[in-house]
Design brief:
By secondary structure, the chain is an alpha/beta fold. It has five domains: 142 residues, HUPs (Rossmann fold); 106 residues, no CATH class; 131 residues, 2-Layer Sandwich (Beta-Lactamase), CATH 3.30.450; 54 residues, no CATH class; 147 residues, Heat Shock Protein 90. The chain is 51% helix and 16% strand. The chain contains 17 helices and 18 strands. A six-stranded antiparallel β-sheet has the order 8-7-6-11-10-9. The chain has a five-stranded parallel β-sheet with strand order 3-2-1-4-5, with helices on both faces. Strands 13-15-16-18-17 form a five-stranded mixed β-sheet. Helix 4 links the parallel strand 4 and strand 5. Helix 7 runs antiparallel to helix 8 and helix 15 crosses helix 16. The radius of gyration is 42 Å and the shape is elongated. The chain starts with 9 loop residues before the first strand and ends in an 8-residue tail after the last strand. The relative contact order is 0.06.
Length: 658
């Protein structure tokens, strides 16, 4: 079956050792095929799995193999709260439908415990639950029997507490007798003792035993004839029965309140740790942060060390990172071959492996894949040291791993969106480049072609002055095209990080003087003034690139100002920077254009006198070059008219002995 759902449907089928469970799995497979949905099979392994009969284990393995054969992804979770863990996994994995087998067990009374299917429906009200006739009564009976055995198992601590409370009740009763208190007061003391036993002890068995012992001890110590279980008055039989019933009811209520309080405390703790995890993961900006936060939260929850195997290259887990209670940063470890092998198996199969599982069960740790939407982000190994987790701890841990997988999925989606955005932006830049170049080089190419054609066809008919003008036009157009190509090559190298700076100590005034030798030939039509400070401004720069910046700024002023305009180039020291200013008194730049003036391919739709328009690379190139020197370039208005470009470059610190 294809695991890639085409409809977004995700069906979760429950696996059990029931003989008829294969029918449930087959029905789920047909449903998944009809809906073209992803099919996942989940088995909630009980804590007392080893105590299950061998025949149940064999049937269970056969049902798991059958689910794998029909194309289902099998997931195993550990715990005794089956409906809660099924519902929780359904929420984490975005399940839309749950398929379960219907048990033959019925509710005997309205106050009795609801059935498994009813609890799943209550825990997952937003998921469609499909019930297939099934019978797991035998398995449920085994589970309840072993659960009851664990609950009533006596402990030495509870036994001592019970003895002390009963002894205290006897002592207080004897004291009341000395003061002439009535027997009803002594009965109240024993009922209070039963209440204390029920609250303090773990097993509810001691509450019932305390109730019976209270009746017997009251009869032995306080009813004539004393120190015997006989009584002279028949009415005491009724008193004993009422006392026993009262003690049992009191103990039962106390145990129920204690259980509710414990459950409330667990839910509060669960909510707090999950809320903290969610808030911390939302702030995480990198996958490493998500892994570190998840490991720390699991350590806080379980007090167990963890090892994380992140997703590496070639769809394999990387070397493990060990997180302990004292080191949350994740220290790289050289994992042994067995640990790496188990992590690789859990990663490839997206199933739990290690201790108390069907794969590598002899391992001391339990390996949980961090998966979402059929993609594995890594494996986390919980160092259990062959001590199983409680169902409550396991449930919270699975929720934390689900939050971790979701956070990693969000980061992955954000990274892919960023890559797609960069590709779109680069494609847009390429489109703008092609559009700008195709539009703006048409004029010089047409001019070169036309002038060359005239020379070829009418060379001897043209006078010397006309031929000289044509040659000059061809030269100007070719120079413009060369500048365009140079700018394109330079800015592409800088943007790709391929431009190497050849730094040397240079005097700013010398760089300005050298740059003026290569400015546009139309500079003769303008008045260019240079104002250098008397101080020597020494900077570490790539002289060729900074000259290109100055040439671009000066040529920009020449091309965008009318003949006769004044262009002033000034250098001075401002703080720790050498500042070069190129000012003109031309028409200036509109306010709505200024924020975009250093953007690539932005021209502001301005044309110069010859009809040619720049492709918007000159100023973008200047900005890139200056910033590669850790400097800054800005544009402000020149007073009263014109533009003022300012280039600031950090000055070199001159040593005393230089």
């Amino acid at each position: 079956m294809n695991k890639n759902s085409e409809t977004g449907e995700h069906i979760l089928v429950c696996i059990s050792p029931s003989p008829s469970n294969s029918k449930v799995i087959a029905a789920a497979a047909k449903m998944a095929s009809a809906f073209q949905a992803t099919l996942t099979a989940i088995y909630v392994q009980p804590i007392n799995y080893d105590a299950l009969p061998d025949e149940d284990k064999v049937r269970l393995q056969n049902n798991i193999k059958y689910a794998e054969q029909i194309g289902a992804s099998v997931t195993t979770v550990i715990g005794d709260d089956v409906p809660a863990q099924i519902a929780e996994y359904a929420h984490i994995s975005d399940t839309t439908k749950i398929v379960v087998g219907r048990s033959g067990a019925k509710r005997q009374h309205f106050w009795s415990k609801t059935t498994l299917t009813e609890q799943i429906i209550l825990n997952a009200p937003d998921v469609d639950v499909y019930i297939i006739p099934d019978s797991i009564a035998d398995f449920k009976e085994h589970k309840e029997r072993y659960f009851l055995a664990n609950q009533i198992r006596p402990t030495f601590r509870d036994f001592i507490i019970t003895l002390l409370v009963l002894a205290s009740a006897i002592g207080i009763g004897l004291l009341f007798t000395q003061f002439g208190f009535s027997e009803s007061n002594i009965i109240t003391v024993f009922i209070l003792g039963v209440l204390v036993i029920s609250v303090v002890t773990v097993s509810p068995l001691y509450g019932a035993l305390g109730s019976l012992a209270s009746v017997l001890l009251f009869n032995w110590f306080f009813i004539d004839p004393r120190f015997s279980f006989h009584t002279y008055e028949a009415e005491y039989s009724v008193t004993f029965v009422i006392m026993l019933i009262s003690s049992l009811i009191t103990g039962t209520l106390a145990n129920r309140i204690k259980s509710n309080a414990r459950q409330s405390a667990r839910e509060a703790f669960r909510t707090k740790i999950l809320l903290d995890t969610n808030q911390l993961l939302q702030k995480a900006e990198k996958a490493d942060d998500v892994i570190r936060i998840t490991a720390r939260q699991i350590i806080m929850l379980l007090n167990r060390d963890v090892i994380v195997f992140p997703h590496g290259k070639n769809d394999c887990p990387e070397e493990g990172l060990e997180f302990t209670g004292t080191h949350y940063t994740g220290e790289p470890i050289s994992s042994d071959k067995e640990a790496k092998e188990i992590a690789q198996w859990a990663f490839s199969n997206q199933q739990i492996a290690g201790f108390r599982t069907d794969h590598y069960s002899e391992a001391k740790a339990q390996y949980h894949p961090i998966c979402l939407n059929d993609y594995c982000y890594g494996v986390i190994a919980i160092q259990l040291n062959r001590v199983p987790l409680e169902a409550f701890e396991n449930s919270i841990m699975m929720s934390i791993l689900g939050e971790c997988a979701l956070a990693l999925e969000n980061l992955r989606n954000a990274e892919e969106k960023e890559k797609a955005s960069i590709m779109v932006r680069n494609e847009q830049l390429r489109s703008n480049l092609l559009r700008s170049i195709s539009h703006d080089i048409r004029t010089p190419l047409t001019s070169i072609s036309g002038n060359a054609s005239n020379l070829l066809s009418h060379y001897h008919q043209l006078d010397d002055e006309t031929r000289k003008q044509i040659f000059s036009d061809i030269y100007d157009d070719s120079e413009w095209l060369i500048d365009l190509v140079e700018n394109l090559l330079s800015i592409s190298r800088i943007e790709n990080g391929q431009m190497e700076l050849h730094l040397s100590s240079e005097v700013v005034s010398d760089v300005i003087e050298e740059a003026l030798k290569y400015v546009d030939k139309n500079a003769a039509e303008h008045t260019i003034k240079v104002q250098n400070t008397d101080d020597i401004l020494l900077v570490d720069i790539d002289a060729r690139l900074i000259m290109q910046v100055l040439i671009n700024l000066i040529n920009n002023a020449i091309k965008n100002t009318p003949s006769g305009s004044e262009i002033c180039i000034e250098s001075k020291q401002v703080g720790t920077e050498a500042v070069i200013t190129v000012r003109d008194n031309g028409p200036g730049i509109a306010d709505d254009v200024k924020p975009h003036i250093f953007e690539m391919f932005y021209t502001g739709q301005n044309k110069v006198a010859d009809g040619r328009r720049g492709v918007g690379l000159g100023l973008a190139l200047c900005k890139s070059i200056v910033e590669s020197h850790h400097g800054k370039i800005t544009l402000v208005d020149n007073e009263p008219t014109g533009c003022c470009f300012t280039v600031g470059i950090p000055m070199k610190e001159v040593q005393v002995d230089e």
